Amino acid sequence: MTKEAPKTMSTIDPAAAQSQFEFRARFCETDLMGIVHHGNYFQYFEMGRVDWLRKRGVTYAEWAARGTHLPVVEVRSRYRAPARFDDLLVVTTTLVELRSHSLRFAYLLHRDKTLLAEGETRLACIDANQKLIPFTGELRAVLTSAETRAEIA
Amino acid sequence: MTKEAPKTMSTIDPAAAQSQFEFRARFCETDLMGIVHHGNYFQYFEMGRVDWLRKRGVTYAEWAARGTHLPVVEVRSRYRAPARFDDLLVVTTTLVELRSHSLRFAYLLHRDKTLLAEGETRLACIDANQKLIPFTGELRAVLTSAETRAEIA
Amino acid sequence: MTKEAPKTMSTIDPAAAQSQFEFRARFCETDLMGIVHHGNYFQYFEMGRVDWLRKRGVTYAEWAARGTHLPVVEVRSRYRAPARFDDLLVVTTTLVELRSHSLRFAYLLHRDKTLLAEGETRLACIDANQKLIPFTGELRAVLTSAETRAEIA
Amino acid sequence: MTKEAPKTMSTIDPAAAQSQFEFRARFCETDLMGIVHHGNYFQYFEMGRVDWLRKRGVTYAEWAARGTHLPVVEVRSRYRAPARFDDLLVVTTTLVELRSHSLRFAYLLHRDKTLLAEGETRLACIDANQKLIPFTGELRAVLTSAETRAEIA
Q: How many angstroms separate the Cα of A98 from the Cα of each of A73, B108, B140, D9?
């Protein structure tokens, strides 16, 4: 991802910054090669990210309703081994960078001990008018907190 | 589809009510059986519908921006033969029913002379508050017109 | 769905023929109307179906690997109320018809007590050469059984 | 993308290595932010890549049928401005690297003069047994050629 001089960078506690989400690969997510299509991994990373936020008390839907959006501005992924239909997959999501107006999550996708893919996404913080805004202190506190409650589903 | 007593039913000229849209099946639309996944056909029907409206001077995006939405309330599809990656497909879209608050499109999907699928969708007419509204006279005139200009792409 | 004279119809125990699967609507499954796009419901029904089979000891992936496929030949869905991002959804899948060479599942999609959609899919039984084959006695026994084990994920 | 010491690197003629493909953003590709979901851009890049090959006489479907696959092993994308429903988009695909066992395409996505996104994908060359194989001389000749015929659709 792009290297920029950090400004108002928050300190991230590595132990607190990680969450895991388990799910199964859908039939419709495979392609004619018999494996999960590479584009679908960004749906998996997104699920991991939404779950990561939920586990810190943030319902992204409510956040969006209040006018704060986190559009994805940059992504990358490296594919190590194919995922297949019905595989029980685990996405490990880690907040790796928290700047004043953007943040960066890293992802690992595993089937049991096998690493299938790794990726990163950078998200900007914008308001309802698509204007870049800084994370408020409240949001920053949430983003640097550990999991606060068990996930419901 | 559900049979209801017609009210304020518009007369549709069969010759005018039909348009065709050509496209290729995408790699990512196939599944591990090597054929286009059945759920993707509703994307194809939607492309046919959007193109049908465009060929009658309606940009659905503008329509939506002005507060009129046409949510899909009922669909069906029957699959006759598989579509495969890179197939050059033609969706034939026909307006088959125009009621006061809803309309119905029928679709045929062909690869050359081979019928691959047929389907139908019923759409309601609602405003920005999700309230059912009747089609205005202006919209009704558009919907019962023939193609008015060549499609750009 | 198409009405045909039943042949070698199996008796289905309604109490045994039903299973439920819970999941959350993904961000990427919504469209610009802010609701889950209608085409994605067939992914939800498919998840319900795959889970239904798993709960009766059938791993569809293994079944497919052994050369038996269940392609979808007909679908329909009726949308009652919109599903939204992050909604906790439950799909109730019921085997409603088991013929010699095809079967039919019905689906109900709920958010809490609210019915969001209902649908049906008819699937044919084919071999690796796309030839229609009858369900074996073994498969028929599985399909008419109740849930045999708890779902893992 | 990963920097590796080049081996058996082919010389690419920049003027010959580029093709353009035009299409419209689908309704179902948008999300609740009203813009095309970031994951779908990899479908756009894939369409560009398939079209790029077709314009050099390669039908990827036939290539795949003969046992040569080009799985995506690494991707990245940077989003500059949102794409919206019904936008007429142009993806410019350029072969930027041709190694012995892999290649790399770069993509630019425009709406008129506006750059919406840029991306890259690295693809490996494998056989039907998922084994890494070198590009044959025949394939290498195709990949370094200019557009040879007009695209049909």
A: 14, 51, 52, 39
For C38, nearest residue in chain B (alpha carbons): B72
ipTM above 0.85, yes or no: yes
Query: How do residues A2-59 score in pLDDT, each as one tens digit?
Result: 554 445 577 888 878 999 999 999 999 999 999 999 999 999 999 999 999 999 988 8
Are B153 and D88 inside 8 Å of each other by CB?
Answer: yes
3 state SS for chain A: CCCCCCCCCCCCCCCCCEEEEEEECCHHHECCCCCECHHHHHHHHHHHHHHHHHCCCCCHHHHHHCCCECCEEEEEEEECCCCCCCCEEEEEEEEEEECCCEEEEEEEEEECCEEEEEEEEEEECECCCCCECCCCHHHHHHHCCCCCCCCCC
Contacts of B54 in chain D (CB under 8 A): 86
Helix (H, G, I), strand (E, B) or coil at C102: strand
Write down the residue that tokens 């940009």 correspond to: B59
* Residues D66-124 pLDDT 10s: 788 899 999 999 999 999 999 999 999 999 999 999 999 999 999 999 999 999 999 99
Residue D4 neighbours by CB under 8 Å, 6+ apart: D99
Under 8 Å CB pairs connecting chains B and C tally to: 56
| Closest chain B C-alpha to A28 CA, distance in angstroms | 6
First to last CA, chain C: 32
- From the number of C-beta atoms within 10 Å of its C-beta (0-12, 13-18, 19+), residue D114 rates as exposed
In terms of phi and psi (left: phi > 0; alpha: psi -120 to 50; beta: otherwise), the region of B83 is beta
C-alpha–C-alpha distance, residues C12 and C93, integer Å:
14
Instruction: State how far residue A13 is from chain C, nearest Cα, in angstroms.
Output: 27
Interacting residues of A87 by C-beta distance below 8 A, sequence separation 6+? A24, A25, A36, A111
Q: In this structure, which amino acid lies at residue A137?
A: G
Contact: D42, A42; criterion CB under 8 Å: yes
Chain CA centroid to CA B119, Å: 9
Closest CA to C23 of A153, A21, B39: A153
**CB-based contact C51:C151 (threshold 8 Å):** yes
Question: What is the C-alpha separation between D63 and D54, in angstroms, rounded?
Answer: 11
Say if CB D123 and CB D42 are below 8 A apart. Answer: no
For the ranges A51-65, C19-33, C90-104, D138-152, the lowest mean pLDDT is seen at: D138-152
Planar angle of CA B51, B52, B54, nearest 5 degrees: 60
Residues D121, D77 contacting (CB under 8 angstroms) = no
pTM for the structure as a whole: 0.92
